[in-house]
Amino acid sequence: MGRRKKEPIPAGTPRVIKRYGNRKLYDTRESRYVTLDEISRMIRRGEDVKVVDNRTQEDLTNVTFTQIMLEQEKSRKSFLPRSLLRGLLEQGGESLLDLLQKGKESIAIMKSEAEEQISRIMTAPGIRGRKGPVFCGIGFRPPRRPSIFSKRESTTASGISFSI
Q1: Separation between Cα atoms, residue 42 and residue 45, nearest integer Å
Q2: d(CA 38, CA 13)
Q3: Best CA proximity match to 22, nearest among 56, 58, 53, 51
Q4: What is the pLDDT of residues 90-142, one digit of tens each?
Q5: What per-residue confidence (pLDDT) applies to 162?
Q6: Residue ranges per domain, the chain?
Q7: Element (H, E) at 107
Q8: Which of 42, 45, 47, 36 lies closest to 9 in space, CA to CA?
């Protein structure tokens, strides 16, 4: 009896990892056991991963991702600030969702404000009557300041004038 041919996996199908009662994780696509670290690498590569309980088929993806974060916290010593972790525990699970939503809203506001500032800069009258800002290469060139030594006569710190 030969092994079955592996059928191609349709695009967009998540990689299913089964979690057994003994806490082992089994990759159904590769037909082998995997570790949390390997699942973390799959996610970093951009793969869609779904973790399910082998017996009940309950979705354990979020729990497993949280466990991966906790393992990373152990190894890094300071992955998340203690005050954030304490606040999440005090507020319960919904506060994390609220925190992420507020962060998303703050980023959208900052983006909008930055776009408005760029628009004002691009449409404002330029230096010495030019339209728009002065650009040099790929960066913004600040306006030139008139030199105090532009004339042939200068003044020393003690107030004595001399000519060059």
Answers
A1: 5
A2: 18
A3: 53
A4: 776 566 667 777 778 888 888 888 888 888 887 776 544 555 455 544 455 55
A5: 45
A6: 15-79, 80-115
A7: helix 94-123
A8: 47
Tokens of 119: 């628009």
- Is there a contact between 21 and 53 (Cβ–Cβ < 8 Å)? no
32: left (phi over 0), alpha (psi -120 to 50) or beta: beta
Q: What is the rounded radius of gyration, in angstroms, for the C-alpha atoms of the chain?
A: 31
Distant-in-sequence, close-in-space partners of 19: CB < 8 Å, separation ≥ 6: 25, 26, 51, 52, 53, 54, 60, 64
The single residue listed with the structure tokens 């959208």 is: 108
pTM, full prediction: 0.49
Q: Is 141 exposed, middle or buried (0-12, 13-18, 19+ CB in 10 A)?
A: exposed
Integer angstrom CA distances of residue 148 from 81, 84, 128, 160: 51, 53, 19, 15
CA-to-CA distance for 72 and 36, rounded, in angstroms? 10
Place of tokens 């009557």: 129
**CA atoms lying within 13 Å on the CB side of residue 22:** 3
Distance CA 17, CA 49 (A): 7
For 44-67, give one letter per residue: b (16+ CB within 10 A) or e: eeeeebebbebeeeeebbeebbee
